[in-house]
Amino acid sequence: MPAFEQLSQRAQVARLRPTAQGALRAYGLEVTQLRLLNHGFNTTFRVDTATGTRFALRLNVNSRRSPGQVAAEMAWLDALSRDTALQVPAPQTTKDGQRLQHVWNEALGRELPAALFSWLPGRVLGARATAGQLREVGRATAALHQHARHWTLPAGAELHSLRDPLMGMPDHLDDDHEHLTPEGREVVREVLRRVHAELDRLYAAERPRALHADLHLWNVHWHRGQLSVFDFDDCALGLPVQDLTISAYYLRPKGGLERALLDGYAEVAPLPAFSQVTYETLVAGRGVVLLNDVLVNTTASIRALLPRYVPNAVTKLRHFLDHGEFRHDLPGLLQG
């Protein structure tokens, strides 16, 4: 039988569906339909029930979170849903009161963390986002940071530190990859060195707090004029400027949207202090994090992107080193 990472997208999802069905039995729901929502770093299904209530079931397929880290995510989401007006996915408990379970998947040969969340109506903002909607994303980001300032991790929960430029992930950048050349590896290493220096300086002056750490436009919904935020799987201990630069990475080169994000944040809380050099370096650092992760991702659709994704990432990072600015709209990028 082929390894999971060698299977097609459809075949991978087919081998995950029984695991999802097995996980749902622990909740005592009468499920009428299980529909795929996303198969990327993790896999999420929409769950329809006989009562008309919907849920979202997430299987952590590629996530390398420890049980303590997932417990922290569940605890923070539970607190946010109780303590704030933010629309976030509330963790659901199994019949025996657990927010998280581990379910065996035969194709991967290991247990997968599985969690069920309340349903958030609406559509992802994605590429259709407007400046007004980005202002709301900024406001929500500030509200998350304000809540996290006073929230403490419960016993048994843990979050890794974003002082690590690779966000706690194993370093795969020196592994043997056919698409990452020795010259490209040198570029990536130099960016990583600069990010490390900036983070050392920032963390010496400020105390970290819980961050979403993956706040891009495909992790927010818009429904009848209201924003909701989901996918807290990457949440970690970090500094507010890191959340903002992670968001900014996905907005380049749309400067008006990036400005609206920062303006919305400032309506709720003071913007964190940062220099332009620091800001651009952390935006570029997001590119290194994603490159490091996609090199070992098992999802078929992501692996298919590697022949152009890797050289394009190097081109963008080289441009940052040469010009001090990170952009996605550079000439010479491979198209596909």
From TrEMBL:
InterPro entries: Aminoglycoside_PTrfase, Kinase-like_dom_sf, Pseudomonas-type_ThrB. Pfam families: APH. Residues 35-265 form the Aminoglycoside phosphotransferase domain. Belongs to the pseudomonas-type ThrB family. This is Phosphotransferase enzyme family protein. It comes from Deinococcus hohokamensis.
